[in-house]
Amino acid sequence: MRIVIVSVAAAPRLKADHVKALANALAKGMAHDGHIVDVINATESDGARLPGYDYVAIVTETLSFFSARLPDAVKKILDSARALGGKKGAAFVRKGGFRFNRALAVLMNAMEKEGMVVNWSDILLSVAHAEAMGKRIGA
Hints:
Structural class: alpha/beta
Largest sheet: 5 strands, parallel
Strand content: 15-25%
CATH class: Alpha Beta
CATH architecture: 3-Layer(aba) Sandwich
CATH topology: Rossmann fold
CATH superfamily: Flavodoxin domain
Radius of gyration: 13 Å
Number of domains: 1
Order of helices and strands: EHEEHEHEH
Strand order of the largest sheet: 2-1-3-4-5
Oligomer: single chain
């Protein structure tokens, strides 16, 4: 299966490395089962490539410690992608702050608004946890 993992960091600071590390760990876990996995950065790419994949996973974080808001790049990449209706996907939010559970619900709603079927979602606690989730998704 061809899988794309979209990494969406809240800011191009140190946190961007955390989100990228989680996305790469997810990719490593998914590739363990023989899937073809690409990791793209939402701030450097648009969503035009997303319809070419069988499965779309988005990894992001909240904008601040007290907020459930997601980075604007999430909406941008979903809006620029066409023909996502019926495509399976997964939503992941990095644990941090008080409202990460609400942020996960916001991400899932944004994906479902584009017609995607979100069949997996989780709060990512660490890189090891992300890799374990990748192995379970790819199964």
